[in-house]
């Protein structure tokens, strides 16, 4: 998360396993645009705090950012199911079940966060 | 949210009503530090997408940012209840009930987001 | 939660501290009606499972029950803030802050669940 | 949800489309047991309200039920992905994508509830 140089695909965690274009690859520009907008919203909240804006208005804005992040997450989940999970399921039952388990765990973290 | 100049307290929305230091004022520096860290995390997610990191690892990081935002929200709620709501409740039953209604609505947006 | 006999107010946990009518007391009949409806919805989900209803339709119904429970929670929070928290705040700063802390912790459990 | 007689598979909504054993079929007894436990917890909350238990303790119990329902939802999602979605994906790209879209929408309702 804090790397600033291009990642080395031969050393990245799980490079062998997760190699190749991911589910979100075709929409990369759209995802990056959404993340830049969210970054701007987060900066806006800091500015609201700095300018002593009323607490409730800040809370409303934090809820909006949380919703925007959840919306990105759901799009990532859909892309992931369509590519990685479906691909693994076509390989073998075991590969499919392993990917489904991994995806469900990630969905569980979303539901609980 | 998008203003870049210092706010004019005489024109800000609800300036008369919400005037004076807010609940979070005493911790302003701490809140700003937390928001800067969250901004860095959001930028980190954009970088992960740009570097084709595995979808599940991105989802995990989005969940972490959502949790960090919820934690800021809960701290804001506590500060708000301690200052604005308690202050209004000491003024009158009506003022207290109005602030409690407003706070509960904001909490509802948090719970559902 | 599993007691079936009337609680003994002299032995209940925190009886001295939390004694007297609670925030929700005036609406007790309405709360009980909502809980009975939720109980019926839960039984309905069990029946859907028993009758092999399509998974997605069951998931939709589970989401509806979760929303109904959250709605009850928010009503309880509002009643609690209006009675217990406001009452404590009028007693003393310390009593108010203690009740606000306790309420915020409960709100945190709602937000994260 | 309110039917008490055995469903007629020829008239059930989507019977043709969603026919056959569903993802959760093999664990039906376990799911029914979990739902009965949740039903008991809901009844316990009604009893707490009836017995004037302290608001915060009721909120804690409502959060516990919400968590139990989410846990059932996640198990249903995993079973659904493993059976219906994987099965559709093996049929055709279109069938797979349609099921993934439907599952993602249901996951979105969980995340937001």
Automatic annotation (TrEMBL), chains A, B, C, D:
What molecular function terms (GO) are annotated for this protein? DNA binding; metal ion binding
Per the record, the domain of life is Bacteria
Please name the Gene3D superfamilies in this protein's record: Metal-sensitive repressor, helix protomer (1.20.58.1000)
Q: Which GO terms describe its biological process?
A: negative regulation of DNA-templated transcription
Residue ranges of the region described as Disordered: 1-25
Under the heading Pfam families, the entry gives: Trns_repr_metal
What are the alphabetically sorted keywords of the record?
Answer: Copper
User: What family name appears in the similarity comment?
Assistant: Belongs to the CsoR family.
Protein name, as recorded? Metal-sensitive transcriptional regulator
Q: Which organism is it from?
A: Isoptericola sediminis
